[in-house]
Structure formats: structure tokens, C-alpha cells
Design goal:
The complex is a heterodimer of chains A (209) and B (424). Chain A contains 12 helices and no strands. Chain A has 209 residues and is mostly helical. In chain A, helix 8 (115-129) packs antiparallel against helix 9. The two termini of chain A are 15 Å apart. In chain B, the strands form 7 sheets. Chain B has a 5-stranded parallel beta sheet with strand order 3-2-1-11-22, covered by helices on one side. In chain B, helix 1 (18-29) runs parallel beside helix 9. The radius of gyration of chain B is 23 Å and the shape is globular. The chains are: A mainly alpha (209), B alpha/beta (424).
Chain lengths: 209, 424
């Protein structure tokens, strides 16, 4: 194959649908969409999506890999499940949107400045490094200081009363800041998660290049 | 000489709509004894409730008249109305059928003069017009009803109205002592022409049929177009009785949706194309139709009608299944919300009136009736050898238009004849 051919094939790679089917949660449903548009019309956040779900499905089938995976659209999904309830073909649209977002994040293609992937990363790091349990105190503080020290202190002062209330009603333990509690066999859990990532990355690697 | 296997050569046809009438007539005109049962007071069925039928856009009253003439002329055919089958036992060639007959409270003396109807005061929702208007407690189901005899509604029996009706009758035709009867028939074969019913539009919650007055169904629009119908042939908005000139049609209302009816009802696309010609017929260039669709399934020769309607500049096609309908309280206009597939534009379109192209579902749930007959996942009768001498005709077998239902009914008449004619 000539270089020109190779670049054209690369440009029009039409196996993005197969890639989605292999790597995205519930991705095998994408081909079932009949383009009626009920999901897009039923979405409460629909007007804010760059590409509504119906269009995303069509873009996947048209092989628009970069546009889909770099899109901010699926990060707007709030899991209200209206689309799943209304879809005449019972496509699990919410799950597909989360699956696409997750896959884009894994590939490092997710938009950098969107709040949802940012928070998701904080949440995951907290869980993964915190021995299988979310340390709410640490997660909260990491969000306070997300935009710098001064902002963090300001937010902390603003939230002081709520924090005190939570402390006195025993909803928050300040000693959690020193590590906190973890689940049984947290090392085993970590090993399981690492193995799962390894399998997923091997699967995704088949579609690289 | 060989002997006929069937112990009884009578063919029973259940349902007196276009399919049942056709099957009964075809079998009777072949010289077979036929009994036609109808659960309503008159035969005619849902086709008699249409204004026009496609593709020729002629009037079903014409076809009805021809069929009635054939029925009246045929000594082999017996029509029994207000009859419902309750049980079927036996095998091909020898079935015993239990039938319940509801009282009409009117005997053969009736001349359809209408004096009883004038005397009665109680009113009920008119079934023939899908409840769009009221009818009296003593009534003729519709102008072309057959038998051409009045009916006394069982709900007025025991009231003063019933006595008023009786005393108004000059022909001693009203018999208030009639009661429910159970009869048994032995027949060789049974044709189920039990037909369809419109899907319950209330179940399609996003379209608000139950809470937005100006959302109606396609069958209701048919009644509105009838010059002798509830609106004298005008397309009126139920909310304010104003003429609706900007009309939206929503396709696949119930059909092709796993939340409602899984199957495609086949005739709704062409029915909507037909109804857009109604809008033009009433208003000329002042009438606007907008068709919201997933894809237009105007199959084979109906494509001519589709091309004709597409050429009409007053008809717009929007490729989108409408997501939901909201009400503009100030004007009473329904607002259609959704995203179109050709460009993914979000729309919020107000219309005067919305017509839901409602899907077809079988009118009888055979699994609940306890009759041993194969039905498919949609509730329609399967053509299965294990059904023996039981056959479906028309919409009992699938969602069909009139043309296909009549063809299917003729075929089922032939199948029934083959059962009663079979020789050993």
C-alpha cells in the first residue's frame, strides 16, 4: 500500500464502530439505533450538547473517531435515564454515553477543562489510593483546593458551619485526614483493578494505529 | 363415492367487519352455509367508520352498500349481531361453539322510524364516533347500519326512559323483556375476522393525549371528516371548536416502539398521506400539514400517493420522532418538541391540532379467551397447521390495510371451504 493510500485509509478508518463495540460498555447496541431522535428530544440537558446522542450514534457509524471521543457531549449526561425509558428500541443510551466517556478518558482524549472528568479522576484516585473506600474528607478537601490555595481556604471558611455541623452530628471524622479506614485486603483489590486495566488496555490496543 | 370428512359443513365467521363480510360472502357465494357473527348491533366494522380509503380515495359507504346487497341477496348467509363466542371445542370439521347473545330489546317489527330515539332523554358517548359526540339511549348505530334496526342501550333498561321508548313505538317493536341468551352451534370450520382496535393513545404519555385537548387520533379525524359526523365534516379543535388549519401528524404513535407496540402497523403512513389530502380538500391552500416520521413506509403502489402528497407545497415532512408534546396555555396550541434527523436541529413547533397516526393492535386477546389457537408475540393469529379448522381473516392475522385484509379474507374463505369439503 502506498503512503497516500495508507493515510487515506487512516483518514476514513471505518472500523470505529467495531472499536466501540469491543471497548465501550454496551457499545454493541450502537448499530441498533434507527435515528428517530427521541433520545435527543427527551434529554433535559439536550440543548447543551454539542452532538445529541442520536448524532453521536450516527457519527460512530460514520467513523468519526476523533470528533466523537474528543467531544464534550457525553460528559453532560446526568443519568436521568429519560432516553432509555423513551427509546423505541430500548437502547441503553445512558450506559453507552458513560461507556464512551470512560473510553475517551482512558485514551486521554477526554476534554481537559470539563468538570465531570476532572471530578471523576479525583474520585477514582481517592478510591484507588485510599484502600477501596472513598475518603470523603480528603475528597472534599481536594475539591476545595482544586483551584489553588487561596480559593481553597475561602471555600473552607465558607463551608465551616456545615463542617462543624457534620462533626457534631458524627457525620464526619476529622482524623480521617490521617489515612482513614480501608476495606479488607485492599492490596488484593488493587491487584484486581490493575489486572482489569491491563485487560482493557490490551483490548483497546488492538484498535490503535 | 367418497365421503366428506366434516360432520358439519357450515362455516362460522366471527366478526362482521370488512374481512368478516368478505370471508362470509365468498364462502356463501361458493354455495356453503355460512353464519356471520358480530358483537356490535350492526356489521360494518371499522372501515364503515372511515371517511375515505386509500389509494383511490373513494368512500367506504360505496363498498359497504355493495356488500350489504350481496348479503341481502344470499340465502346461504345468516347474520347474527350482538353475538360473542365464549367457547370453542372439537376438531376440524366438527366444532361446537358456545355463543352469548346480548338483547337488542328491539324485534323484527322495527322500521327504523326513530320515534323511540326522540322519546328517550338519556345520552351516552357515541361509540361509532369514538366518543366525539353523544347518542340517545335508543339509537341506530349509524346510517348504513345492518340490520337496519334500532337498539335500546341496556343502561336505560329499568328506567323511565325505557318505558318512554316502548310507548313511543307505533309498531310494537320494543320488547323490554328480552334477555341474554346462550346458544350452541356446530360448525365445520371457523374464520376469525375479529379485527383490530386503535392502540390506547393514553399509554403514550409524552404525547399527552389524555391532558392536551388538541391532540387527537387518526381514527377521530376520520369521524370529523364525515359530513354527517360529530362536527358536520369540519376539522374542529376540541378545546375551542375553532377550525384547525395547521395540522401536525405524528407517525408511529404506538407502533415500532418496544414500550408500546413492537410491530409496524403498516397502514398508518398511507393513512396519514390520505389525511393530508383531507386538509387540502377542506381548506385548499389555507391548510397546512406537517408529517413527523421515522421513515415513510408507503409500500409498493402506495408510493404514487406518497409522490403526489410530497409534491404538495402545503405538506411538510419532518424526519423525526417527536419526543414530547407540551401545551401552550394561552392559545391551546400543542407544541411539538424534538430533534430532527436531517441536520439535528432542535425544534419547538406549535400547531393548531395534532393527529396521532395510531397503531393497530388485535381487538381480541385469544390467550385470555381460552381458545386453542396459535398467536404470535404481537397477539395476531399465526397461520399454523395445529390450528386445524380455525383460520384468521384480515387484521386478526396481522396489521393490514383494507386491500390486503380483503385479499386475506378471501384466502381464508377458501381454506375453510377446503376443510368442510375434505373427502376421505
Amino acid at each position: 500500500m502506498s503512503q497516500l493510500n495508507a493515510t487515506k485509509v487512516e483518514k476514513y478508518r471505518n472500523h470505529f464502530l467495531r472499536e466501540v463495540e469491543a471497548n465501550v460498555e454496551e457499545g454493541h447496541w450502537v448499530k441498533m439505533c434507527m435515528q428517530c431522535g427521541v433520545c435527543s428530544g427527551s434529554c433535559p440537558l439536550g440543548p447543551y450538547w454539542e452532538h445529541p446522542p442520536q448524532e453521536i450514534f450516527m457519527m460512530i457509524r460514520a467513523g468519526k473517531r476523533e470528533e466523537v471521543l474528543k467531544s464534550s457531549s457525553m460528559w453532560f449526561c446526568t443519568s436521568c435515564y429519560n432516553c432509555i425509558a423513551r427509546c423505541p428500541r430500548e437502547l441503553p443510551i445512558t450506559h453507552i454515553m458513560h461507556g464512551l466517556a470512560h473510553y475517551a478518558k482512558r485514551l486521554g482524549l477526554a476534554p481537559q477543562n470539563q468538570a465531570t472528568p476532572k471530578f471523576a479522576q479525583y474520585f477514582w484516585d481517592n478510591l484507588y489510593n485510599g484502600g477501596g473506600r472513598v475518603n470523603e474528607l480528603k475528597l472534599g478537601l481536594s475539591l476545595y483546593f482544586m483551584n489553588g490555595l487561596v480559593e481553597g481556604i475561602k471555600t473552607a471558611l465558607k463551608m465551616r458551619k456545615i463542617g462543624q455541623g457534620m462533626y457534631f452530628s458524627k457525620r464526619m471524622n476529622p482524623f480521617e485526614i490521617f489515612g482513614g479506614h480501608s476495606c479488607k485486603d485492599s492490596q488484593g483489590l488493587k491487584a484486581a483493578l490493575n489486572k482489569a486495566r491491563e485487560i482493557e488496555e490490551a483490548k483497546a490496543a488492538q484498535f490503535k494505529g | 363415492m367418497t365421503d366428506v370428512v366434516a360432520t358439519n359443513q357450515t362455516i362460522l365467521v366471527v366478526g362482521g367487519g370488512i374481512s368478516g363480510m368478505t370471508a362470509a360472502l365468498e364462502a356463501a357465494e361458493c354455495g356453503k352455509d355460512v353464519i356471520l357473527l358480530e358483537k356490535n348491533p350492526s356489521i360494518g366494522g371499522r372501515v364503515a367508520q372511515l371517511y375515505k380509503y386509500f389509494p383511490k380515495l373513494c368512500y367506504p359507504t360505496c363498498g359497504m352498500e355493495i356488500n350489504l346487497r350481496r348479503i341481502k341477496a344470499n340465502p346461504k348467509l345468516r347474520v347474527i349481531t350482538l353475538a360473542e363466542v365464549t367457547k370453542v371445542t372439537g376438531d376440524a370439521g366438527n366444532y361446537t361453539v358456545d355463543i352469548t347473545l346480548q338483547p337488542r330489546y328491539v324485534n323484527n317489527n322495527c322500521t327504523a322510524c326513530g320515534a323511540c330515539s326522540e322519546a328517550v332523554e338519556a345520552q351516552f358517548a357515541n361509540e361509532y364516533n369514538y366518543g366525539l359526540n353523544q347518542r340517545k339511549g335508543a339509537y341506530l348505530p349509524f346510517y348504513m347500519a345492518y340490520p337496519q334496526r334500532y337498539v335500546v342501550d341496556p343502561r336505560i333498561i329499568g328506567t323511565a326512559d325505557a318505558e318512554k321508548a316502548k310507548s313511543a313505538c307505533k309498531y310494537d317493536a320494543i320488547d323490554l323483556n328480552m334477555s341474554t341468551q346462550n346458544i350452541q352451534l356446530t360448525v365445520g370450520a371457523v374464520i376469525w375476522a375479529t379485527g383490530w382496535k386503535p392502540f390506547d393513545a393514553n399509554k403514550i404519555q409524552p404525547y399527552g393525549y389524555d391532558r392536551i385537548p388538541n391532540v387527537i387520533t387518526s381514527v377521530e379525524l376520520e369521524r370529523m371528516m364525515d359530513p354527517l359526523g360529530p362536527t358536520d365534516g369540519k376539522i374542529l379543535r376540541p378545546s375551542d371548536q375553532k377550525e384547525a388549519k395547521n395540522i401536525a401528524f405524528i407517525q408511529c404513535a404506538g407502533s415500532r416502539d418496544r414500550n408500546y407496540l413492537k410491530h409496524c402497523s403498516r397502514m398508518c403512513c398511507t393513512a396519514t398521506l390520505k389525511q393530508t389530502t383531507y386538509v387540502r380538500e377542506r381548506y385548499g391552500d389555507a391548510g397546512k400539514s406537517s408529517v413527523y416520521y421515522i421513515d415513510i413506509r408507503a409500500i409498493d403502489r402506495f408510493d404514487d400517493l406518497y409522490q403526489k402528497v410530497k409534491a404538495d407545497p402545503n405538506v411538510t415532512f419532518i424526519k423525526s420522532k417527536v419526543a414530547n408534546i407540551t401545551l401552550d396555555k394561552a392559545t391551546g396550541n400543542p407544541i411539538l418538541n424534538g430533534v430532527d434527523t436531517e441536520g439535528y436541529h432542535r425544534y419547538n413547533n406549535p400547531h393548531d391540532l395534532v393527529v396521532l397516526a395510531i397503531g393497530m393492535e388485535p381487538s381480541v386477546d385469544f390467550s385470555r379467551l381460552g381458545i386453542d389457537i396459535k398467536v404470535n408475540e404481537h397477539g395476531f393469529i399465526e397461520a399454523d397447521p395445529s390450528n386445524g379448522g380455525l383460520f384468521a381473516a384480515g387484521c386478526a392475522s396481522d396489521a393490514l390495510d383494507v386491500n390486503r385484509a380483503v385479499q386475506h379474507a378471501t384466502a381464508s374463505a377458501l381454506r375453510a371451504i377446503q376443510v368442510v369439503n375434505q373427502v376421505s
